[in-house]
Write a structure and sequence with these properties.
The protein is of the alpha/beta class and 182 residues long. It contains seven helices and nine strands. Helix content is 26%, strand content 25%. It is globular and about 35 Å long. The protein starts with a helix and ends with a helix.
């Protein structure tokens, strides 16, 4: 018998807790009918606060990405929206990432230099908005801190009408412009 098993025998049974290798609980992230969190994000500078719960009182779209300037975000996910003829029908459109306001401003200027699309790029520097939606994932080994899953939320009058959340956190399938703006 190993030394650790011998120690376990000395503990009262009530202090031994079994662990499970996986959870059978369904994900609890944002879903249709949920309210957009009343949390400030930042646009262009840390002092310029934007609250999507107030901004999205009509029709709109929130696109969440793991990181500004990352390959999939810059090469296909956001360009898919920028180049979509259906974007105009989406209402107010916001891209949100767990980044600071300066990074999001620079990324927006890189992807849409003339701001022809009207898409606004917002930072969620402390991930409070992302966490309120239950859309954060552990990604410190890749991005240096926890980040947002890739998603898109169709919103009407401050409530989520449809949620498109990537099951693997970072893929570009479920939340692609072709599927969301159909």
């Amino acid at each position: 018998m190993s030394h650790s098993r011998g120690l376990l025998r000395l503990l009262p049974r009530s202090t031994i807790v079994a662990s499970r290798p996986f959870s059978t609980t369904a994900p609890a992230f944002v879903k249709a009918g949920d309210s957009i969190p009343d949390i400030d994000l930042v646009e262009a500078s840390p002092g310029n606060k934007v609250n999507l719960a107030k901004e999205l009182q009509g029709k709109g779209l929130v696109i969440g990405v793991p990181a500004a300037f990352s390959p999939a975000c810059s090469a296909s996910h956001i360009p898919g929206y920028l180049n979509s003829a259906s974007l105009k029908e989406a209402g107010k459109v916001f891209v949100v990432s767990v980044n600071d306001a300066f990074v999001m401003k620079a990324w927006g200027a890189t992807l849409d230099p003339q701001n022809k699309s009207g898409i606004r790029f917002l930072g969620d520097p402390d991930a409070k908005f992302t966490e309120a939606l239950d859309l954060s994932f552990e990604s410190a080994s890749i991005f240096g801190n926890n980040r947002s899953k890739r998603y898109a939320l169709k919103v009407e009058d401050g409530k989520v009408k449809e949620a498109y959340v990537e099951p693997d956190n970072t893929g570009v399938d479920v939340s692609s412009a072709d599927k969301v703006l159909k």
